[in-house]
Fold each of these.
Amino acid sequence: MSGKTGIILEGGAMRGIFTAGVMDFYLEKNINIENVVAVSAGAYSGMNYVSGQKNRIVDSVVEPMRKEKLLGVSLLFKNGEFFNMEALFDRIPRYDCPFDFEAFKKSGKRFITSTTNCLTGEAVYFDEFPDFDYFLKVIRTGNSLPLLSKMAWFDGVPMMDGGMVDAIPVSKALEEGWDKIIVVLTRDSAYRKSSKGDIYNSKLVKVLYHKYKGLLKAIDARPGIYNNSIETLEALEKEGRAFIYRPPSTITLTNNEHDADMLLKYHQVGFETAEARYDELMEFLNK
């Protein structure tokens, strides 16, 4: 297997459960990929893959939903955030379902995740995490969505979800010199992004975030960058340089799904999708 092989993990909030299923199959089969670049919710799956904690997404997100509210409009009105950020990015990984940060650091894998600099509109990539507090802050910042989360501040710079700039960072993978790129998408093959109907590309966002010109610039450019990334990946797939997983169009999951049984089903879909393509993946990695 080439040392320049890496995985790109797209975000998509709760649709990322599909990604977790794919990564859990990798852990079961001991498929070790040296590089991981994970955006937004994809970071939650990516970090568990790097730390080697199979099914942690189920134990840390899905099952807790049966007992407490981790997302919803009521949380947005109460705390100013649609997702229970304190639980997801502090209490649960520290205490309820501990994330193995030591195993993460010793894995030998390179983990890259991103945020959006709201002043410049550029992606900020992180691949070094000196301690657990810093790591959790990066992951939380990279999952802070406009309208749905409070503005995050990192070293005095306003930052939000990395997917606002580049949801599928194929350009970053090519910049890193990866010869083979594995990609886990959370939309089916027909999906293309449009500014129409996008809650982020709205008058409300332009009013609320008028001080953050970079964020608004990134949101305006977002559909074009996303669709160009898909076209680039499909071209690389034809060349034999990209291996792409997509959820089947027969099963749809919204990014705010909160039914634990539905999420478990979708996790299994991700696992079975990877399982069905195992031989194909081995051929891709070993050619």
Amino acid sequence: MNVIKDVTFEGTILNQVKKTIEFIETQVREHTFLGQHAQFVTKRDYPEFVIQEMTVNACCHRAYNI
């Protein structure tokens, strides 16, 4: 994965997690296609709960000694 943005989130841990999730959701690729009943369907590469879990795990397991 190539890093293309360097963004810093400040504030309380809860605010950092919330802002991080919001930012990551803007970066996730979406695919729109014509589904059943001739209606467009949009699916993302990663579901919302996966982004939330990934972000919270990264915060919980970060190394403070770095």
Amino acid sequence: MTKVLVLYYSSYGHIEKLADAIAEGARAGGAEVDIRRVKETAPPEIVAAAHFKTDTAHPEIEGPDALAQYDAIVVGAPTRYGRMPSQMAAYWDTTGGLWMKGALIGKVGGAFTSTASQHGGQETTLFSIITNLLHHGMTIVGLDYGHSGLQGVDTVQGGTPYGASTIADGDGSRQPSDVELEGARYQGKRIAETAAKLK
């Protein structure tokens, strides 16, 4: 069975919800799925002052070597000034040993994100994630236009060809919509199906 890892960092729970939807889609695509989060590296006083969401059902990933056991890895993180946050970057900075061995070459990768506003850097954040995956030799699967939710401008919605996304609003009050969650499921399924074909 194809093994998929959904690896994420979430400050306020929006990315965590998308991670669950990505995983749901990957399971629908026939994969065995693990959901893991990266370590929180912000000082405890910052976490408390910013009211980060600290309760989660998903355990931390144990270390970089864990990545090698998966056929596909889907990485999710919110945007920080148009790029992935330091928590996720710090994790990928530990994967040099895997890169040296070519341990992730030929595996499937994908990315998903969230921003506060419609023009808050979703695509640049996705590319900041995808760049790491490409350097590891992974084959990238985005959110293609088979997902009809990428069309239309009647409502505020995330979603790009480069990966699923959501818009949280400046105060984090907007939760992922049904269309955005469906996009995440669609991408997760496509990633699982592609990994199965390449395995």
Amino acid sequence: MATTTDASVITLSHVQKHFGSLEVLRDISFSVQSGSVLGIIGPSGSGKSTLLRCICQLESVDGGSICIAGHDMVRDGVYAPRETLLKAALSLGLVFQNFNLFPHFSVLRNITEAQRVVLGRSREEADAVAMELLRKMNLADKAASYPCQLSGGQQQRVSIARALALEPKVLLFDEPTSALDPELTGEILAVIRELAEAKMTMVVVTHEMAFARDTSDYIIFMDRGVIVEQGLPRDVIGNPKEERTQTFLKRFIQN
């Protein structure tokens, strides 16, 4: 399959996804520019998490096209050869809702394992990368700890460090604060803000409306598997045009 060369790091065209007779994604099209942050908002069950899983090849699509970092991962519902799929996958880092750390690995090994297995780095190189990221996350003193010894916020910061260790072109966040107590949410949002300031390309699925408004360059509002409205944060969140968007945002934004 040919590759594209435009400025978009992620491009989706008319993507469809079914679970049996249930259509969970319908005609999804958008692109993400390098160095930008795309915020995806919407009610539970609207297809947001499924969308991220399709981009990361954790789910297959039933139609449409996806291009990742110049690699045509799937075109008109037909997937590329394995080598191209691997290149696309290595361009992405996914941060899950529930951390997904290996409980029997130390914090350090959680960050070094994929570096050694996937990237072929030596132990010394992987350790150096991991420790630098842990310092940036203010967790250098937790390198020898195990996930069960960390707070939820600390575990999520480790999972962000693990994703960054593979040097992806894009970070995808699937509701990164949903499993955290409200008092721990702020520390994760602060990390994502710092990444945004450093021009890390990101796609963030979130229920934190103020965060989405203030951090995103572009917003997509999804409901029932379709994009209802999209545009600049000041328009979609600050002055939504669609009635469904207005109804959804009333629960979050007070006049």
